[in-house]
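I hope you will forgive my troubling you with a question about protein structure. The record follows directly beneath this note:
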Amino acid sequence: MTKDTDFKSSDKGLKKQLIVDAAVKIFHEKGYRAATLNDVARELGVTKAALYTYVSSKRNLLSIIYIQALESFFAEAYKIGESDLAPPEKMRVLIRHHIKHIVIDNLSMFAVFFSEENQLPEEDFKTIRKEQRKYNRVFETIIEEGIAQGYFRACDPGLHTCAILGMCNWLYRWYKPGNGRKTPEEIADHFIDLLENGYTRSKDQPNRIEPVGATESEPKAKTRGEKELLERLRDHAQIMTELIDELETIP
């Protein structure tokens, strides 16, 4: 079936979602200012007039994208925030969910979400800002619980939340699916470790990190000092072998 057939054969709710999905793609590729409703209509294989049954303008369509994005944020975040997990584990689950299922699963939407915010109608902008603060409050509450229960050190929960979300949200600028660098799970693990342990080395940690991809079948190259030490050990081993042979000949 063609895009036109897909659109025409869909029910009203699905048609609106198809318009939103097409708009996210076009706004991401061309930028909100350069994109037009004609571009969105062309992507769907319909006329521009057909879109006006579901959206009133390009700005209205942008607002719908933002509201839909925020709804996806809250659906699982509130459940995590209200769970019986201890604050540290609750924070890990929330960060992992944000990285994997909000940002990475919706990269195009996030690109639009963060780059076109100033294009929103003023009332919609205020509403969306209010909803964003509610989402931030989930993180802040977990941090406050962690401080009160002795899990986290005293800090400014709001500032910590901004730092955590800023680090996670920036993924949309550099993460490329399938580039082979890191999986979403590995990125989440790394970010959580960085947040919990910082970037300074503790005394019981090794000072040198093994190169990525090193395996037992590919041993690391020995330094000059290591080679010299190995030669000395070999010489001592030879001397010990000769002494043992000599002792065995003594009656």
